[in-house]
Amino acid sequence: MFPLRFDVNGEVVEVPVTTLLNGGYAGRSQEDVAAHVAELAELGVPAPTRTPCLYPVAPYLAMQPDQVPVQHGRTSGEAEWALIVAGPEERDVLLTVACDHTDRQLEVHGVAWSKQAGPDVLGRKAWRLVDVADRLDELTLTAWAGGEVIQRGTLAELLAPQFWLDDLRERGLLQPGTVLLSGTIPMDAAVDQFADTWRVELGDPKTGDVLACEYQVRRMPEPVE
Fold first, then answer.
1. Where are the domains of the chain?
2. Beta strand residue intervals within the chain, DSSP E
3. 92 strand-pairing partners
4. Residue 111: which pLDDT band, with cuts at 50, 70 and 90?
5. Is the pLDDT of residue 42 over 90?
6. Which candidate, 179, 62, 154, 52, places its Cα nearest to that of 111?
7. Under CATH, to which class is 4-219 assigned?
8. One of this protein's Pfam families, by short name (predicted)?
9. Over 80: is that where the pLDDT of 15 sits?
10. Rounded distance between C-alpha atoms, residue 131 and residue 136, angstroms
11. How many secondary structure helices (H) and strands (E) does the chain include?
12. Rounded distance, CA 145 to CA 201, Å?
């Protein structure tokens, strides 16, 4: 298993991922949660029985690739932030940008299954959570599908990192090597999510700093069977 490497203010921090978790339906606003449920319902995905959700994902699916291979044309990303527990101290918790690339065709049969069919793409740069803790709700989250803005919002729309840190602690999962993705914000239904490129940015308006992840979606050859 290859470790993730992050540039944290010029320091390289290496993290072997042991636990990977995806938050779902994690908006602070119930209107946003309902909007996301409605988006997925249009794709045939059944509504959850409770919110927020938490999906364990195979750790090897945490990646920092330039390309994502897919089996068909109905896959897409989701703009998210990610927490990375890089060590035992509070300052070792990192925040970065992420894109959960999901198989929408499989998602109609089960969200948990679909999470295993694509990678969680993480940025190559990260911030220490303590360094931005005083302005988390001001941080911006923006996604482009095929060059068009498909998601735009702030972290105030999602459950706060502290919510998830408390949840991980209760579950005994706040350990070095744990990575958690936040869940996403609503998409613009007028933009085609099934694009051949995805880019997500996490921005800090106070400093002008931006964390980004970007990749091409590459269709694999048809199976021979």
1. 4-219
2. 4-8, 11-15, 19-24, 53-57, 62-63, 67-70, 75-76, 79-85, 93-100, 102-103, 120-122, 127-128, 140-145, 148-154, 178-181, 197-203, 210-219
3. none
4. confident
5. no
6. 52
7. alpha beta
8. DUF2848
9. yes
10. 10
11. 5, 17
12. 12
Q: Which residue has the tokens 């035992």?
A: 88
Tokens 């919002």, residue? 153
Give this prediction's pTM.
0.93
The answer to whether 61 and 120 have CB atoms below 8 angstroms apart is yes
> Under 8 Å CB-to-CB from 127, ≥6 apart: which residues?
8, 9, 94, 95, 96, 204, 209, 211
**Token output for 180:** 């958690």
Structure tokens at 90: 């509070």
Q: For residue 144, which amino acid is it?
A: W
* Amino acid in position 87: G
User: What's the rounded Cα separation, in Å, for the pair 218 and 35?
Assistant: 29
The amino acid at residue 73 is G
Residues 98 and 81: beta-carbon distance below 8 Å: yes
